[in-house]
Amino acid sequence: MRISIRVKWTSLISAVILAAYLIVAYVAYQTVDNVASASVAHGFYIKLIWVGIIVVIAGIAVSFAAVTMVLRNIKAINETIDDLNKKPDSDSRIKLRKRNDEIYDLTININKMLDRMQAYTNQQKEFVEDVSHELRTPVAVLEGHLSMLQRWGKDDPEVLNDSINSSLQELKRMQSLIQEMLDLTRVEQIDNEYLSQTTEVKPLFKQVYNDFKMLHPDFVVNYDDDIQDGSEVRIYRNHLEQVLVILLDNAFKYSGDRKEINLAASTNEALLEIVVQDYGVGIAKNDLKRVFNRFYRVDKARSRKRGGNGLGLSIASRLIEIYKGTITVESVVGSGTVFRIELPIVQDGIDADQESDDTNSKKSKRNSKKARSH
Ligand code: ADP
């Protein structure tokens, strides 16, 4: 029972019992006083006083039990918080028996908050570990080249030239790594201002296609635009462009000898679907699940050579997730890869899938009303 209801009922019942006792005591006192002898009346008054004392003691005992139960639960909460203060990364959580009261609800909320905070701290810790691991290689390469130059490269123009070129290359890699890491952190901080933005898909899709066609004249890019004129999706324009650039960049980067890419987009009433397909190296089944993980590269050496940091797909998938879309991948090693994105279409300022959910729930409410009235 809820504590507020329990307190109300306990007070009400105590008041009623006390009032009943006082009325009965008064009536009995009047009657006994009129009809009984002095000694009988005396015995009766003594009994009346004892009953009164028992009623008061029972009341105190009931209140004491109720307060003790509440305090025991608060003590459990306090002990867990103490535990966490001593060991912040501990898995300790408040354990209470399931009850339908406010303290139990509070416990559930505190436990949920602790889970969220722990997940966030773990994420930050992993991120710092990943970043330092990723920066270790370019820093070590740079250090190697500079030490070589310091020892004997200064006087050898060939070594000097090679080392300077390699060092510059590593510096560029670090620059792109830092830029992508910043992009990833920015994605985590997207605020409501962006979440409410919409983008007209057709012109953006066309512009990205033209940019890539110009950048890769040696490729055949098949372009299939089946987007309804004026279709809008709920995503900030630059974010959709960023996702398309990441997928297309990868398609070009990981294409083998067959320099052909398919870029297609279509809309229906509820969704925009974008497909980016290449006929390149492909991704093995075991790696498919992990390509969206931060810093994951199927072939570290090959990806590094092509300037990959393993962050592009995690940025893309996080962006799509934030805007309530989906991103999926299918691939066959040696045959190629297909990435598919779906995003909700916006109609009259309302997300189409939400609208159809609302319509469905309205319909089902109407149907259940009808069923009841039949
Ligand atoms: P990177 O910057 O290394 O390309 P991504 O996060 O974009 O990082 O991709 C993660 C990994 O997924 C890549 O290192 C690559 O191994 C694999 N990958 C991504 N796209 C493709 C693709 N179109 N074809 C083959 N492998 C791909």
Automatic annotation (TrEMBL):
Membrane topology: Multi-pass membrane protein
Residues spanning the membrane: 12-29, 49-71
Catalytic activity: ATP + protein L-histidine = ADP + protein N-phospho-L-histidine
Subcellular location: Membrane
Biased composition regions of type Basic residues, renumbered to the chain: 362-374
A family per Pfam: HisKA
Keywords: Kinase, Membrane, Phosphoprotein, Transferase, Transmembrane, Transmembrane helix, Two-component regulatory system
Name of the protein in question: histidine kinase
